[in-house]
Amino acid sequence: MEEILKVENLTKSFKLSRRQQKSEQTDLTVKVAVDGLSFSAYRGEIFGLLGPNGAGKTTTLRMLATLIKPDGGDAFIDGKSIISDEQAVRGKIGFLTSELKLEDFFTPDYLFGFFSELYGVDRTVRDNRKRILFSKFGIDRFAHVKLANLSTGMKQKVSLVISIVHDPDFIIFDEPTNGLDVLTAKVVTDFLQELKSQGKTIILSTHIFSLVEKLCDRVGIIIDGKLVALDTLENLTREQSIEDAFFALYERTARGSI
Amino acid sequence: MKNVLTIIKKEFARFFKDKRMIVTVLLPGLLIYLVYSVMGAVFSDSGKTDANYKYSAYVVNAPANEQFLNAFNSVSEIKEFASVDEAKKSVAEGKLDIVVVFPENFDAVLDGNSSAVPNVEVYYNSSAEKSVGGYMAVTAILEAFKDPAFSINSGGSFDLVEERDAAGKILSSIMPLLMFALLSSGCIAVAPESIAGEKERGTMATMLITPVKRWQIALGKIISLTCFALLSGISSFVGVILSLPKLLGGMVGSSAAAFYGVGDYFMIFGLIISVVLVIISAFSVMSALSKSVKEAGTMITPLMMVIILMGVGSMFLSGGSVGLYAIPLLGSGLAMSAIMSFTASPLGVALAIISNVAVTAALVALLSFMFKSERIMFNK
After folding, report:
1. Interior CA angle at B309 toward B319 and B251, to 5°?
2. CB-based contacts of B267-272 (< 8 A; 24+ apart in sequence)
3. pLDDT tens across B312-369, in order?
4. B202 contact A CB<8A
5. Please, what is the end-to-end C-alpha distance for chain A in angstroms?
6. Phi/psi zone of residue B328: left (φ > 0), alpha (ψ -120 to 50 degrees), beta?
7. Is the peptide bond prior to B148 cis by the omega test (within 30 degrees of 0)?
């Protein structure tokens, strides 16, 4: 298997403001969000990062997407460091999070063109790709309608399409089905499987167990910034469901036995 | 009533917990104090010149009364001209301060041996500070000798100011302030939405994960924001120039704009662009520091007041040393004032523009650094 992602001892801490200390009811001035994370992902697999809210999943993905810098460690995507070669990494990855939103004043057609230019996609390639993706997601009928007038599901489809305008081999999805209705969520999950079949590597962060069971080849369970389990879905679910496996790990972590 | 009080209490609690809001509300008072103090100090000095300065004067029918002459000569220095008209022309051109035309046999009036009430004519140029000072000094002396009676500047117009200079004086005092106010309002309309708005909506991150360099995003934003603000500024400027004749009534004539040459407009345009660059860069920095459009508006408002204060300051500091032109924004106000009053030097204007461009470059570098700072861009 070809290793496309190598994460080595990734660490990230955040200073807590007084307000944050108050809201988190802690006297600590620094919060360790990610604590020495190491794992790899291979070409053509869907790797799931599973964990509760605040576990460090989003921070990990943001570091991989070069949005924020790690305090320690490094990660290499297709051999390029997220620290020393961030421009090259940005050209190789696609990143979609439910937190990312597109501007309401623009149409899907305009945004596809705009982001294609930022990624340096050739015009002919762009037009062809737009035609295929817009048709697949049913966006073609709304290509010239402002996002403000589209449904939440359609907006999320547009976001998904925009995140892969440059046809990246490595795609990061942070809670991609959050807030979506069941029909749109199915379109998204089906597309993830299709991307996998095309040989793309997908890092999927979620707290939805069914999504992990349906899509992931391997799973890393992250609790309090630490990777407490890393195995194939098959091994993790040999004796119990992924949900039971997760809660068992969670309780052991809380007791301090991990 | 209890419910109303509960709501009032909650609103007060919210207000006093927001330090920025308190500053924004209280800052105008502080600024008004500063502005009025500066204006007061300047007004108290207006019309005053160097104590040893003697106003240049051309006198017709100078009286021989020793007491009067001593008083007159203590403030003025007599100059010779071939004719009254030539002297008046010199006053209009700012080369001579005043022309005083006494009636014939004014000595008889001063000695109280005349039953007539003659008129003393004091010609001056209201656009020239020294001429106004000379007019005030001479009329003060005349007033002291006004018993028995004679009139001063009765009937007719004795202000020899040229239409162009009158328009220039008025424009030079209002344009810097107008420029700063209009350009600031143009910038405040676009800057918060473009950066803080994108942060608030989460659309900024979508751009930051593309291979485009952060400084390119910062510069792209500033250039486009500058264009929008510039459009607003230029449209306001053209509006002011075109509406000025109406504003000034018959004083200025058909068009104030006609008094200024291509070179003047070129300098004005350069100043406007450089001022917009500074303002939009500064607002963009504030916007990038903010988490939301609302917060950006709150943070920009005090800065806008300071910028307008620069416009007020330039109204009173005109005629100062060239070094003042190197102060960003203030120098532009002074340069604008000088252009309007036809006294601009290319060096002063160039200094003002260069200082603005230098500050803009520093602010763009800062903004680019801020775009790289995860603490600033992703702090929620």
Report:
1. 60
2. B267/B335, B267/B339, B267/B344, B267/B346, B267/B349, B268/B237, B268/B336, B268/B339, B270/B349, B270/B353, B271/B179, B271/B332, B271/B335, B271/B336, B271/B339, B271/B349, B271/B352, B271/B353, B272/B179, B272/B183, B272/B230, B272/B233, B272/B234, B272/B237
3. 888 777 666 778 899 999 999 999 888 888 888 889 999 999 999 999 989 988 988 8
4. yes
5. 29
6. beta
7. yes
Judged against a pLDDT cut of 60, whether residue A66 lies above it is answered with yes
Confidence check: pLDDT of B252 > 60: no
Taking CB atoms and an 8 Å cutoff, what residues of chain A touch B374? Answer: 67-69
pLDDT 10s digits, B96-131: 999 999 888 788 877 777 777 788 889 998 878 788
Which residues of chain A are within 8 Å of residue B378 when distances are taken between CB atoms? 62, 67-68
Tens digits of per-residue pLDDT, B36-50? 676 666 555 555 556
Q: What are phi and psi of A28, to 5 degrees?
A: -70, 140
The helix/strand/coil state of A185 is helix
Distance CA B140, CA B33 (A): 33
CA–chain centroid gap for B191, Å, is 25
Is residue B19 less than 8 Å (CB to CB) from chain A?
no
- The answer to whether A225 touches A14, Cβ cutoff 8 Å, is no
Q: Tokens 């702090």 sit at which residue?
A: B379
Say how far apart CA A219 and CA B247 lie, in whole Å.
Answer: 75
Contact A69 B211 (CB under 8 A): no
Identify the pLDDT of residue A104: 82
Q: How many of the other CB atoms lie within 10 Å of CB of B368?
A: 17
Record the pTM. Answer: 0.70
Write out chain B residues lying below 8 Å of A100, CB-based: 202-203, 205-206
Mean pLDDT of A190-199: 92
Q: Is B9 in the A-facing interface, judged by CB distances under 8 Å?
A: no
